[in-house]
Amino acid sequence: MKLFATALLATAAWGCAFAAQPQDQITKTLAERIPQLQRVDEVKPTPMKGLYEVRVGTDVFYSNETGDYLIQGELIDTKAQRNLTEDRINQLTAVDFKNLPLNDAVKIVRGKGERKLAVFEDPNCGYCKRFERDMQNVDNVTVYLFLYPILSRDSAEKSRNIWCAKDSAKTWHELMLRDKNPAAASCDIDAIERNLALGRKHKITGTPTLIFADNTRVPGAIPSSEVEKYLAAAHKK
């Protein structure tokens, strides 16, 4: 009986090792064959039999159980009518408003400022200018402006001058509402570098990108009427 029990334990251990083998095999194979995949953060099964998700940071790929085939594309659940790849990336890149480094943002208060909104913007972004002009119709809101210079070298220079200005909020509005370029200024701009890193982490690739207090993320220059709807919904939660 003791021998039989030992055999059962050995079989169970072998079974566990075998169950974990596809993930290990995929990681090993990809590291050997694709230099860009030397470091894989996670490998896990997908709902599709024999297909595994391979995650590198916030990038998602798919592989068979040996790592011999790699797919870069979207996995669609036709029954549930869901884009599983999109759902997963949204999960990986979600922004928790409560964890945003608000000290790295320009704080703009309108009215009582009871409602909260974070915005990633580039000073040379035409859509951002349109958004800012329309935002003048929105009251009772605190906007946290994360300077996000991704369009050009001049964007970085203007962002520095805005961040280092005596009144950053006023300087920002002078540029976005009246096309008045900010005066040259200098100071510690590590906050802007942190904004860029934060944006890359969460795959913020366009401006403006809005983050509401309930963590809802909206890309693009939506009209003030839409902003009001999102603010109202977030404020109720």
Structure description:
- This protein has helices at residues 2-33, 84-93, 126-134, 153-163, 168-178, 190-201, 224-236, and strands at residues 42-45, 52-56, 59-63, 70-71, 76-77, 82-83, 106-110, 115-121, 141-147, 209-212, 217-219.
- The protein is an alpha+beta fold and 237 residues long.
- Strands 7-9-8-10-11 form a five-stranded mixed sheet. Strands 1-2-3-4 form a four-stranded antiparallel sheet, sandwiched between helices. The protein has a two-stranded antiparallel sheet with strand order 5-6.
- Strand 3 (59-63) and strand 4 form a beta hairpin.
- The protein is elongated and about 60 Å long.
- It starts with a helix and ends with a helix.
SSE layout and pairings?
Layout (H helix, E strand, L loop, with lengths): L1 H32 L8 E4 L6 E5 L2 E5 L6 E2 L4 E2 L4 E2 H10 L12 E5 L4 E7 L4 H9 L6 E7 L5 H11 L4 H11 L11 H12 L7 E4 L4 E3 L4 H13 L1
Parallel strand pairs: 8-9
Antiparallel strand pairs: 1-2, 2-3, 3-4, 5-6, 7-9, 8-10, 10-11
Structure summary:
With about 240 residues, the protein is of the alpha+beta class. The chain is about 40% helix and about 20% strand.
